[in-house]
User: Fold these one by one.
Assistant:
Number 1:
Amino acid sequence: MDEGMHRNQKNYRRLLDAMSCPGRIVRLEIPDGHASIGAALAVGQCLLDSEVSVCVIGNGDAPALQSTLAAVTHVRTAPLAKADFIFICAGQSLGGARLAWRGRSEAPEEGATLVYCHDFVRTGSSDHLRIRLSGPGIARQEGIVPEMSGIPLEEFRELLAVNADYPLGVDVFFVRPNGEVMGLARATRIQVR
Amino acid sequence: MPLTTAMPTQPNLPSTHWRAGMPSARKRYSYAFLDEGAKREIRRKLLKAVAIPGCQVSFGSREMPIARGWGTGGLQLTLSLIGPDDVLKVIDQGSDDSVNAVNIKKFVRNVTGVPLTTDTRVATLIQTRHRIPEEPLHANQLLVFQVPIPEPLRLVEPSERKTRRMHAEADYSRMWLYLYEDIVRFNEITVGARYPVMVNGRHLMDPSPIPRWDVARLNQSEALLLFCAGREKRIYAIPAHTDVEPLSFEDFAFRVENFHGHCCSRCGCAGSFLDEVIVDESGRRTFICSDTAYCEKMRRRGAAADAAQEENR
Ligand SMILES: [Zn+2]
């Protein structure tokens, strides 16, 4: 119990780092014994409980992740368009991101949090080199290349569309099975070149 | 878990303000006082506040064992963030030694065991009321501001529903008009503390009652800046490297306080924010650094330099 509590506190501080320094990689401590979904579960344990709802979409681990999150955190499930948190397995939303709740103009903070869960550490793709991130939390005026590779260009395009009406929008964590996390706030400006 | 089961065994709290609301039940307290559910809610809301810089996010404020107005907002944020790796500093108007700052520090130490410091450079988490420490902050520090009134538009609009609408539409014309009328009437912007700022070019924000000297330092900060109002249950944030502009007019640029060439009479520093204090019964006044830890550091550095010079002679 205490071990889990302290891990959640540490992991939360890293998630806070990730959201306040978009495009940079931080590393979470992963709970033992959950194989490929351990990193996603670490995010869930930090942020989920019965006060919020989740929807798990995508291929591969989705059913296992959904049932583990519910069992461990008591999070409620909700349809994609209403969920506070959307966990996206296999790292691709296949258009699902576009259906996420983006908040109301009087309460933009109600917009969903997307957690892209990669099932392995992809290498070889150079898609990320075509992306420039700038805005709050990013020191360089001219922007930075996201540190995490392996995120399909299509997902960046999706996020651009979902976050076109700032401050309405969604905020994102990309999670690798080794515990690496990169955040993108809705205030982050994304350029695709 | 109901909060009543989460009280410190030995509160050891010096002031009566702290005992107010403490139940007699002597049960084992949660780490950092708040139950995990309360922390999770604040943690979730804080991530949203960071993602939308300057936007006020509401949360369910808990009863704290200190009187409201004594920093219950800042304290809840601190308790939701703090962990065994942190080193805590608490200041009240620049002072580490005020009753308010000392009470908050002792309370947090009692419920977490984290080490305390007065040295800005070694603190990982700094809770403050009405000042930003004089020494530059760095990327691995969190600065938590206690906020009495989170709504910058309260000055011009009492209705919460209407101020929400104004933020939604980024319609800040009434605030501009208010400042303009100020200039017409007084030939200057009289708003001193709580000077309204525009964050990331989108949200008007109340920086809490810090001097304008500090308002200027919110822009492109190195550290993450977090704000929390306990009574009104609002959290907002400014990530590092975010544009923060005080509202100003072309002919009436925003200006920080001017000390007209005075320096600190204690450490001799000329580049810090100064408090004017009365030194004796005749009403004689002098200036000293508002940041007491900084002043002490500068004074010791000055003394060391003097000693070195003496030795070289
Ligand atoms: Zn001084």
Number 2:
Amino acid sequence: MTMSSTLNIQNLTVSLRSGLPLLRQVNLTLEPGEVRALVGESGAGKSMIGKAVLGTLPPATRVTRGQIFLRGQALDHLNAAQRRHCVAQSAALIPQDPLTALNPVRRIAPQITDPLTRIHGWSAERAQTRALELLDRVEIRDPARVMRSYPHELSGGMRQRILIAAAFAPSPPLIVADEPTTALDVTVQKQILKLIRELQKEVGTAVLFVTHDMGVVAKISQKVSVLFQGRVMEDSTTEAIFSNPTHPYTRALIAATPSYADPARSFSPVPPELIAQMKSKIAQEEIL
Amino acid sequence: MFLRTVLSRLLTTLVTLFGVAVVVFVLVRVAPGNPIAMMLPPGASEDDIAQLTALYGFDKSLVEQFFIWIGGVVQGDFGTSITLRQPVADLVLSRLPATLELSFFALLIAVAIGGVAAVIGARRRGSPTEAAVDLTSGAVLSIPDFLWGLLFVLLFGVLWPVLSISGRLDPRLEFDFLTNFVAIEGLLRGRFDVAGSAFSHMLMPALSLALPLAALIAQLLKQNLKEVLIQDYTTLPRVRGFSETQVILRDAMRNAALPTLTLVGVQFTFLIGGTVIVERLFAYGGLGNMAIDAVINRDLPLIQGIVLLFAALFVAINLLVDLSYTLLNPRLRHG
Ligand SMILES: Nc1ncnc2c1ncn2[C@@H]1O[C@H](COP(=O)(O)OP(=O)(O)O)[C@@H](O)[C@H]1O
Ligand SMILES: [Mg+2]
């Protein structure tokens, strides 16, 4: 199973220099073409998992235990340059905030094609054609004009489409999407979600989809990992999570999802007693 | 909109230059020392003095003198040098290329050294290498340009005389110059012996002028780079496989250069001010050297001409900086 998985995280523990763990023995696999949602409240460590995979952990943190395999390759066996190369060949990122993710002083074109030509070794023509094709695919009108634009000339929704196109352009086996719709307004969110789902199927990319919204989970993923304080509380198929959530925290998250159909029922926050109970349980296990 | 900006800019420039003209005109006249007395041998008669005074117009009232002078200036006539007895405009323009070549060569050195140090410091941020960059630049910055000049004269002129520390060119070289840009003309016309001699004569004075600015660029650009490198938009290139050095040079540099540029522009005008003493130290035949002679001889028309030219140069540099800022910043380009 390990060798065929796109991503395999084993017992991953990431800690601050002080020793405080931000991720606690996380286990997680992602098969080719599969979408796995990482859910949990803000601060649970969802983004931290993506950063650990992509090698962009903050300087204040380090991996203290465990391993990450990208397409069977153990990342901790590689030196920095090899690791960078391995990640670039296997994975791409759709960032959370399209307004800050693009370089303000560079045109769109090189920001899409540079990695294709300089990292993946494509010809300039091939990269250009692919970029235009994907911009067209993410429903951007007049892709040639957009390629010549600077980020500030484009709306947030446009920029997120561009970032999606750029992520899918090299047809990577894995994409980490870190709350890619959170910064956008609701109507745009739906279109972006639909695009990611469609492109994921077309390209056959496995997606690690970070979200705090169980409604989004239901729409996009086949598997779910529920996170609380850096720990995986529940790991299951999306179907099972919704039909038969085993952990009370998962049930609380589902209940906390706003319902558009029935606004009266919407938003019952996770009960503070439950949070306190889970925190003390984690603290106890830590001591043992 | 654009036209209004240009017009208002032009107006401020004219007002600035007029202000400089008034100030320098008054200053050189209230300063002690009589230019006429300096020209005549001791024991000249009252008559001789009165005659010469009238010849140069110093017998008229200050206001009259000012308007006669400024009336000439707007027609390109800056008066006649008292000591050299040539038109000030010709004298000053013949020296300007030497000072321009020296200043821009110094700027080039400063940007090169400061830029490389900043990139190395930013690349190794948080490490002893960065601390070394900070320490070195701090030390270099605390020594002013003329002290560097003295140090180089001592080192390479006296103790270990390998480099020419006097003049602009090897006098044995034969070459018919079309302009006074000896280094650039030598390069463009393929006379590399001429260009080489010009650059080797400029090296020490240019380095003296450049070192403090290089240190400043190293500190400032490194700081700006570090701030850019924690911005969100540097994450994507890292994930996409670009090395830290590539991220610095390709993604961070232009963003970091923008705030650095404004300060470098201001500091460059200070550097040009520094040429006055440094040119003197190295007997380099530029405007600054001429300015000191003019002051010593109380050559009022020449002093006025040189100061006005320096002022015009500063204004032009500020314009150039604003222009390149706009060119580098896409947000302003179509504004
Ligand atoms: N740069 C950082 N330095 C120290 N701690 C951090 C840093 N970034 C995030 N954290 C901490 O790590 C934990 C997990 O953060 P994150 O993965 O961003 O949460 P989320 O689930 O909201 O994406 C949080 O408690 C957060 O405070
Ligand atoms: Mg997050």
